[in-house]
Amino acid sequence: MGKLGYRSKNGLRTKAASAIVDQPTRAEAVTALIWRCAVTAASRSSSSLQSPKLSVLSQSVDIRKKVVPPLSDDSIGNLVGYFAAHTDETEVELQGLVAKLRKGIKELNNSYAKRLPKDQALQVVCKSFKDADELIKRDDTNNFYVGTDLCNYKLLYGVSFGWGKPIWLSNVPAASNNNVASLVSTREDGGIEAWVTLSEEDMAAFEQDQELLAFAFMNPSVLEVEPITRKSAL
């Protein structure tokens, strides 16, 4: 498992922008970068010497503001939707991956979230899992990744249980689950922390990826007496 903190001297969101998605969100840009670097690492590691095949990313989405009518930010429950994006392993250019993520969000908004409050909710939820399952089981699918994003969940740093508001929190995926990227915002500077789990072989290559290191610093310390002061240009 690896922990990343994201900086952007050269502007990750700028690099990820295209005519299709001219203003990528922070999470879209970071998720696309991790996906790209993970696929590249898998192709280089000893565990993945096959010819290029399909790579699938299942992305979870907070649907509180996407359902009709929208729910409040403090609504309790696992109010999450899912979509699956996929790409050929030879087509992992950053802008293209962002476009696939944006397309997935739009499809979720149109055909998933808006129909949940109606009597079609069960069918909609089941279909999203069925679509992802069909992609995973395809003969040409080589790797499957899971992405989670809590970057815009406002309650994370606002809840106090009597000890004051948190100065740091994380959403750490289980170490037994490989190919997971879990994103959460830092408290003050607009940055993103990502916990990534890969196989040992893939992680060794992933951590040396020069494009990744141009925008991220590895294993940032959270044991700081003063509030985190690193700034992000994402």
Automatic annotation (TrEMBL):
InterPro entries: CAT-like_dom_sf. Pfam families: Transferase (PF02458). Coiled coil: none annotated. Transmembrane segments: none annotated. GO terms for molecular function: acyltransferase activity. Keywords: Acyltransferase, Transferase. Belongs to the plant acyltransferase family. This is HXXXD-type acyl-transferase family protein. It comes from the Eukaryota.
